Amino acid sequence: MSWCYRHLLRPVLFAQNAEQVHNRTMGALAWASRHGLVSDAIGSFFGAPAAPIELFGLKFPNPVGLAAGMDKHANALPIWPALGFGFSELGAVTWHPQPGNPEPRIFRVIEDEAIINRMGFNNPGAQALAQTLAQWRARGRWPGHPVGINLGKSKITELEKAAEDYANAFRCLQSYADFFVINVSSPNTPNLRKLQDKSALDGILGAVQELQEKHLAPPGVPKPILVKVAPDLSFEALDEILELVPTRKIAGIVATNTTIARPETNDPIRQRLYAEPGGLSGRPLRQRSTEVIRHLYRQTRGALPIIGVGGIFDAADAWEKIIAGASLVQIYTSLVYEGPGVVRTIVAGLLERLEEAGLNRLSQAVGLAANERGAIGKPAH
Ligand SMILES: Cc1cc2nc3c(=O)[nH]c(=O)nc-3n(C[C@H](O)[C@H](O)[C@H](O)COP(=O)(O)O)c2cc1C
What is the pLDDT of residues 122-164, one digit of tens each? Predict the structure, then answer.
């Protein structure tokens, strides 16, 4: 399947405008999502083997999730388990609906298996998303795997009012997701990444947790709140975020978002593409995102769950993230480059690696290699 996708379908898709291909693909997946038999057929083709893992009190059928940015409208929510994903992260969604940046805003760097995007949180807004999610629930099409929602800041909201903006979206969506990700790391909303500063992030998390504690929205069970970080942060800046973990009850870190850094190249085509503003994802991000994961794991001595994302294309890449300290992983760009069979291939490969390592459960592999070179503390798993 992967061969067919790479050599037959992908060249046709890549000859067309990237955002139009994305929209048409999402349209087809949304259609399939509305038809149980079609979803089942897709599931029998692309479903992944069981590789269960438990985290945040949630049961994940496997550790490979859909990264934020793919399904901002939740139009294809029921299809993600059928494509093998062990969980899905919807959004980013903001309190106010917004169109995002002008097109073109997605660029493929094919030779490097990378994408540059400056979408700018194009999304229908939290209230519209809540309606869509309510409809999936009413139709009995809610997926059988954990669902997260990625929350961003509305562009029109001033930075000083960011806490209120995130809290509004959270209140509206609280009952529709199993976990939430506070996204303060997208490079495409002006100044958003300043919210990674300790005091700003403290304010946002405080506002969200206050809502949870007051049980303003049903059900009363608090939802795990994670923070998604940029790969461009220094280790010192990451450590400052970690200082908020106990006080603000951060349940985990998603590491990482896209990078504003660019690989060096003498190739004029790549130079032209890399000059486009936006966040870079895919293969060139792999190493840095693993470094961030390893640092976070070491600093927290394995006590804080990490979702590893950035440049995962195969089981070797996913295993690298897991043994660096990630309990779960996510993909976006490899779905574009490898096609829909990629999740099953990664999960099957992870199970093989587990067996080779003589381990029974994936949780035993988490952080195995994090303490090599300059280790502090022992892995907790
Ligand atoms: C087109 C596009 C849109 C994205 N939108 C979001 C977003 O809305 N929120 C977010 O947290 N991350 C977003 N991301 C980042 C991904 O979730 C992921 O962190 C990043 O792409 C690295 O993973 P990858 O190399 O597997 O793509 C987006 C990525 C791409 C390519």
Answer: 999 999 999 999 999 999 999 999 999 999 999 999 999 999 9
Q: Confirm or reject: Cβ of 258 under 6 Å from ligand 1.
A: yes
CA of 257 to the centre of ligand 1 (A): 6
pTM score: 0.97
Residue 102 CB contacts under 8 Å (≥ 6 apart), including other chains: none
Given ligand 1 and candidates 192, 332, 335, 336, which is best to mutate, with the most ligand atoms within 8 Å of its CB?
332
Catalytic residue among 186, 281, 327, 334: 186
In 218-314, where does DSSP find H-type helix?
235-242, 245-248, 268-274, 286-299
Distance 149 CA to ligand 1 centre (A): 13
Contact 228, 181 (CB under 8 A): yes
- Using CA atoms, how far residue 139 sits from 33, 135, 254, in Å, is 11, 6, 31
Four-CA torsion 162, 167, 173, 174, nearest 10 degrees = 140
pLDDT in tens, 18-53: 999 999 999 999 999 999 999 999 999 999 999 999
Residue nearest atom 18 of ligand 1, based on CA coordinates: 257
Q: Is 312 in the pocket of ligand 1 (CB under 6 A)?
A: yes
Ligand 1 atom at minimum distance from 311 CA: 25
**Angle 234-235-241 from CA coordinates, rounded to 5°:** 95
Q: Which of 4, 6, 1 is nearest to 338 (CA)?
A: 6
